[in-house]
Predict the 3D structure of the following.
Amino acid sequence: MARYMGRRITDWLEAIVEDQLKLNINRKKTKVVKMKRQGEALDFLGFTMRYDKDLHGRNRTYLNTFPSIKAIAKHREKLRTVTNSGYKRSMSDTIAKVNEINRGWKNYFCKGYPRKCFRDINWFVLERFKSFINHRSQRRCRPLRDGESLYAGLRRFGYVPL
């Protein structure tokens, strides 16, 4: 996060990392990203960082940090395996497992501005549980009370949204 990365600075950083810290720099993965340009983003440790325009229409930009597309896809795949129709566990066990997966993911990605991503994951979990309930077995599974919404039923069983 420097304004200018000259040859002297990069040589100094490489010397510290390789000589003092005894780490190898992967030259294929290492690159300089000019974040002030429109559309330039940096993916690092599951986060995507980029400068976005101000949400209130002011002539400012801010550093937006949120989960990367790859991290979201990996999390969805974990949720997919737990809420698969072939997952032979009770509804409360399945919800407890989903809560466990979501809690760890939320604790890691709570930095920055992940609200939109969390809403998308919550919607994905609701859709997965709708399919999970409908494909439980040959007989129709009715874990929800009459007139109860899916969201209210899942909350009654202990589901905690992100």
About this structure: Residues 115-134 form the longest helix (20 residues). DSSP finds five helices and three strands in the chain. The chain has two domains: 1-31, 69-157.
